[in-house]
Design goal:
Largest sheet: 6 strands, antiparallel
Structural class: alpha+beta
Strand content: 15-25%
Radius of gyration: 28 Å
Helix content: 40-55%
Number of helices: 22
Distance between the termini: 51 Å
Oligomer: single chain
Length: 665
């Protein structure tokens, strides 16, 4: 368990230090915890509302002293890792209680129980929960598993004082689990349903049902009171149910591929062992319906995010009983005359098969199998020290007392600021599931944008096709200028500068360094690369980025006809042996001014600042390729961070931009 905590604390810190917590949640939670120190209690400027209008999570107050002791987002990551490791303890005792009921297994009950606890710590679903942002939901697991232990323990104890004590502890841990989040009440309610199925005494049925129902209704009332719309906003997911007839409902529920993916994936992560004792899976029925009934599908997100936490208690309980059932079959030679019976005769072979299956799950389902390859320099979107240093340099320019509009990756680093806003919601223009407009404060003096986010929003938020207009309007209305930029990272401030990301020209400018291309960059003839200027290395007076090798050049484009395509540019550096040493993709116009918004007849000048890794040495030829990125997507990568996935769909041949020698002088 200590090894788990050490490993995932290290990976979490590495991810944080490389600005890979970029899915909003850590930034929101860190700001909510900070709000108690500033007197803004529960308020989040990122959401522009009280967090109590999102979820009812009073357990935040229990964690608050730890955060105030070391007020930093990393404190939350450490707490999350510790609480995710702790369930291994009650899981061990649950398994031992179950296995001790039979004494003739080939493996001792303690050894089997340790194996189950070890399986929990190695389970890729747990790893995904640990690394996908920060959430309070995973904190419920230790309480739910403790409640499960006393539920099971009471089943094997006579009607004595000890039985009553088990009942008391069961109710106490149920109550602690309720403090985590409002929808945990649905799982607590299902303990009562399970007790009813198992024909337990009436108080085992009534207490969890009443407790769960009461807490759910109380939570809905509190959340609705603090929500700006006066309701539980996540009910929007299910509004479609009231707009279809019963046959359409059944067809949608049964025919949605996401639902079957969710079932198959969750069972696969437990080697299908829960199928041996399916009655315990009833605990997972409410969360299953939560995702299965979402319009549009969300089952595929369960395995890779914190939502898997809803299912772990049911899956582990059913899985442990599944192992017991399997062991019982082995004890009575149930498989003796089966074609596959040899598997169950040889304990060493069985352990080998189990170990290989576990390794496969870790590699294909979880982040650990991809952690080392993530450092590979061959990746188009690589994480390197220079990218991180550029982002840190730009973040550090913004005074903590100033208001800023930020890409999600930078929100945790500035959690102490109580007036920052999010690029994501600014792009959408509305608060989450609300008709209320999302408007960053007029006092906003800075904006720090990762342009990859903008292209990702275009892919994933297609109903908000005017989002880039809102960002451009925000920059114009707040009178912001490009202060500094490199690669994907752009810092705006109110300080006037000569820097610009793009310019709209009536004609092609004259200059000795201009190289006219006169060729169609798009095979369909919709976009034309008219010219580019000679390559040079960026050295801006007073820039905090002058320590990096940044290649500067301008591209001159012309739109020949209207298009709704999403374009990206691919910058390639080839060594003398023609091997590709650099392969980077950027949204055309930095995502702020896409080709769909260009005016026909105008020349669009885009100014590129491409980061060159310090590891590159020698002579290189630089090429440009236009990519049709229309079918791209916004996905979770191996480390459970948001990243843009752009298909390698070339819209043009390679255009030679020039040659450079590194390191430059």
């Amino acid at each position: 368990m200590l090894i788990y905590i050490a490993v995932f604390t290290y990976i979490s810190f590495w991810k944080y230090d490389n600005f890979l917590y970029n899915a909003l949640d850590l930034g929101i939670y860190a700001q909510v915890f900070e709000s108690f120190g500033s007197g803004n209690y529960w308020y989040s400027s990122i959401q522009q509302s009280s967090y109590l209008g999102d979820h009812f999570e009073p357990f935040i107050l229990a964690l608050l002293p730890f955060y105030l002791l070391i007020p930093h987002p990393k404190t939350l990551l450490v707490l999350q890792t510790i609480f995710l490791a702790l369930p291994a303890i009650p899981i061990f005792f649950i398994a031992r209680t179950i296995f001790q009921q039979a004494t003739s297994y080939k493996l001792p009950a303690t050894s089997l129980s340790l194996g189950i606890a070890f399986f929990y710590l190695l389970n890729p679903l747990v790893h995904n929960i640990n690394l996908f942002e920060f959430h309070l939901l995973p904190f419920s697991l230790v309480f739910l598993f403790c409640a499960t232990y006393f539920y099971i323990k009471a089943n094997y104890s006579p009607q004595t004082t000890r039985h009553k004590l088990h009942y008391f502890w069961f109710l106490l841990f149920c109550f602690l689990a309720l403090l985590i989040r409002e929808d945990i009440s649905l799982i607590i309610f299902m303990f009562g349903v399970l007790a009813l199925i198992e024909r337990r005494r009436w108080y085992w049925v009534a207490a969890p049902m009443l407790m769960g129902a009461w807490w759910f209704l109380l939570s809905m009332g509190i959340i609705s009171a603090f929500n700006t719309e006066g309701s539980y906003k996540f009910l929007t997911y299910y509004s479609w149910i009231f707009q279809v007839n019963p046959l359409q409902f059944i067809a949608h529920f049964v025919g949605k591929i996401d639902n079957w993916e969710m079932i198959f994936g969750l069972l696969l992560a437990f080697l299908f062992l829960p199928l041996f004792k399916t009655r315990f899976l009833i605990l997972a029925l409410p969360p299953f319906l939560q995702f299965a009934l979402v319009n549009g599908g969300s089952g595929g997100t369960v395995f890779t995010t914190h939502y898997a936490a809803y299912f772990l208690p049911a899956l582990f309980l059913a899985g442990i009983f599944g192992v017991k059932q399997l062991a019982d079959y082995m004890r009575i030679d149930y498989f003796k005359n089966k074609a596959y019976g040899f598997v169950f005769k040889d304990r060493g072979l069985l352990i080998t098969i189990f170990s290989m299956a576990m390794i496969g799950l870790i590699i294909f389902f979880g982040p650990l199998g991809n952690f080392i390859p993530y450092f590979s320099i061959d990746k188009k979107r690589m994480v390197n020290n220079e990218e991180t240093k550029i982002q840190k340099a730009l973040v550090n320019i913004i005074p903590i007392e100033s208001d800023a509009m930020l890409s999600s990756a930078y929100l945790p680093e500035r959690s102490a600021s109580q007036n920052d806003s999010a690029l994501f919601w600014t792009f959408k223009g509305f608060k989450q599931f609300s008709s209320s407009p999302y408007i960053p404060p007029y006092s906003t003096g800075y904006a720090l944008i990762d342009s990859e986010d903008l292209s990702g929003f275009i892919f994933s938020l297609k109903e908000y096709e005017n989002g880039d207009d809102r960002i451009r309007n925000f920059i114009k209305m707040r009178k912001l200028f490009v202060q500094d930029y490199a690669d994907r990272f752009i810092l705006f401030s109110k300080k006037p500068t000569q820097e610009s990301l793009y310019e709209i020209l009536d004609s092609l400018p004259e200059g000795p360094d201009l190289v006219k291309d006169g060729q169609s960059a798009d095979k369909n003839g919709q976009v034309k690369l008219t010219a580019h200027n000679e390559l040079k290395f960026s050295q801006t007076t007073g820039s905090s980025l002058n320590q990096f090798s940044i290649l500067s050049f301008s591209l001159f484009w012309e739109k020949m006809e209207n298009t709704d395509k999403i374009y990206a540019i691919n910058i390639l550096a080839r060594a003398e042996n023609e091997k590709i040493a650099l392969n980077k993709i950027y949204p055309l116009g930095y995502g702020l001014y896409p080709a769909s918004d260009w005016e026909i007849g105008k020349i669009i000048q885009t100014n590129q600042h491409t980061l060159l890794p310090g590891s590159l040495k020698g002579e290189y030829k630089i090429y440009l390729r236009l990519i049709d990125a229309t079918d791209g997507g916004f996905v979770l990568d191996q480390m459970r961070s948001d990243t843009v996935l752009i298909p390698d769909k070339s819209a043009s041949g390679e255009v030679f931009l020039g040659a450079i020698t590194l390191p430059h002088k």
